[in-house]
Amino acid sequence: MTVENQFTKYAKDYDDHNIIQRIVSKALVREIEGKPQKILELGCGSGQIIRQIDWEFDSYKAIDFSRSMCELHPKNKKIVVKCFDFDSLEFQEDIKDERYDLIISSSAMQWSKNIKELLANILPKTKQFRGVLFTSDTFKEIYEITKKEKSILSLQEIKEAFSSYNATFEVFEYKLHFENKKELFDYIKNSGVGGESKLDFKEAKNLYKNYNYDFLSFEVVFVTI
Ligand SMILES: C[S@@+](CC[C@H](N)C(=O)[O-])C[C@H]1O[C@@H](n2cnc3c(N)ncnc32)[C@H](O)[C@@H]1O
């Protein structure tokens, strides 16, 4: 399943299974400097970030490649939602002549297929960047069992991509505890953080049998420019 399909399939359940995304998006919004007037958000989902922005702004453009997520996102005269892949030429073309006071992205850019190009496209257009990305150490105990290739960027790849932009990084690890295995595995399925690494029936059964932790671990990096 592609990342896009995964979010489309679970778009309705997503808001019940996104505790970590909610925590990090709140922290991200708290770190914004001033009251930016022209804002671009990448991977907006159902609107976690916009719901926390409590000042008047001139314009807010929110991008997401999942149509279902775009439908859920709040819209009005000042908030435009566009269904774009942030790695695409169409998106580059769309923002070509625009300038922003803030570009923000929460829990989305770790899936970029070409983060260096994405950064070269967006960063010269903004005064302020605030991003939080999951790293490939998210669900690390699971990958130790499945040995599957990780579908999201590692901390090193993220730091390397931002290396020419004078960025500062803050890394946090979270552990989310569950009462039982079913709840834990339901969370993975519905949270949308698992990415596209799909297990066949035998692999999934093996993982269920051998996953002996009562928690899931997440690693995120906050990037400030
Ligand atoms: C974990 S959700 C986070 C949503 C929201 N920012 C939040 O904090 O709740 C990641 C979002 O990024 C979107 N996304 C992932 N890769 C994308 C891409 N290449 N282009 C546009 N959106 C993307 C997904 O569709 C999904 O809505």
Give the beta-strand count.
7
**Regions with little confidence, pLDDT below 50 for 5+ residues:** 1-15
Strand order in the sheet with the most strands: 3-2-1-4-5-7-6
Any idea what the shape is?
Answer: globular
What labels describe this entry?
alpha/beta, Rossmann fold, disordered N terminus, binds S-adenosylmethionine, 9 helices, 225 residues, 7 strands
Quick structural summary:
The chain has about 220 residues and is α/β, with parallel strands linked by helices. The chain has nine helices and seven strands; from the N terminus they run H-H-E-E-H-E-H-E-H-E-H-H-E-H-H-E. The protein binds S-adenosylmethionine.
Report what the structure shows.
With 225 residues, this protein is α/β, with parallel strands linked by helices. The chain has a single domain (3-136, 152-175, 219-224), classed as Rossmann fold, CATH 3.40.50.150. It has nine helices and seven strands. The chain has helices spanning 3-14, 19-30, 67-72, 89-95, 115-122, 140-146, 155-161, 181-191, 201-210; strands at residues 38-42, 59-63, 79-82, 100-106, 126-134, 168-177, 215-224. Strand 4 (100-106), helix 5 (115-122) and strand 5 (126-134) form a beta-alpha-beta unit. The longest helix is centred in the first third of the chain and has 12 residues, at 3-14. It is globular and about 50 Å long. 36% of the residues are buried. S-adenosylmethionine binds at residues 3, 7, 18, 21, 25, 43-45, 48-49, 63-66, 69, 85-87, 106-108, 111, 192.
